[in-house]
Amino acid sequence: MLGGMGNREALLDGAERCLVDKGYARTTARDITSEAGVSLAAIGYHFGSKEELLKAALRRSLERWGDEISELKQEMHLVDGEGDRFVDTWDRVIDSFRESSKLWAVQFELLAALEREPELRQSFAAETRHARIALANLFDTIPEDNEEAEKLGAFYQVLLAGLAAQWLSDPETTPSGQELLDAIKLVAMDLLPPRQS
Predict the structure, then answer these.
(1) pLDDT tens-digit series, residues 178-189
(2) Digit-coded pLDDT (tens) for 43-68
(3) What is the 3-state secondary structure (H, E, C) of the chain?
(4) CA spacing 20 to 30 A to 186: which of 17, 29, 57, 147?
């Protein structure tokens, strides 16, 4: 049996695999410990409960996905023009759904459970600000004002969740980065006052 920190990592790895294979609601503590090769008591010792372990495993999976997407930022400086950077970044995010579709399905499953699980809702709410700032940072558009950064991040978060939902239901009709940019320009034209001649 693995000791100390090894048990904790084995539990997280096992929980991540179970989340992908079974989803949040159908994963049992025994499923996780069987996958991890540790005792049931290890869950209580390291995480307190199966639910806390599953939340930690999902958080780690999403952070890993976010890290992979953030690596795109290094390549974005090779793309000319803000519009081109926006299009290229979103195209890459959309492409990432092919590998991470099960992870997004689990996240939507959890979102559906928030109404019944107030502690889960609080956990998600606590991480929302960090996620929004990270998304704004991905597009190199963080204003100096944190409140503005959160608003911008919230907009990107809405786009991300909507794209993930569309990709899960029908990948073929999910908008491309260029289509998103075109739509944003149309909305902006509608909202901005006409230029005076």
Answers:
(1) 999 999 999 998
(2) 999 999 998 899 889 888 878 877 77
(3) CCCCHHHHHHHHHHHHHHHHHHCCCCCCHHHHHHHHCCCCHHHHHHHCCHHHHHHHHHHHHHHHHHHHHHCHHHHHCCCCCHHHHHHHHHHHHHHHHHHHHHHHHHHHHHHHHCCCCHHHHHHHHHHHHHHHHHHHHHCCCCCCCHHHHHHHHHHHHHHHHHHHHHHHHCHHHCCCHHHHHHHHHHHHHHHCCCCCC
(4) 147
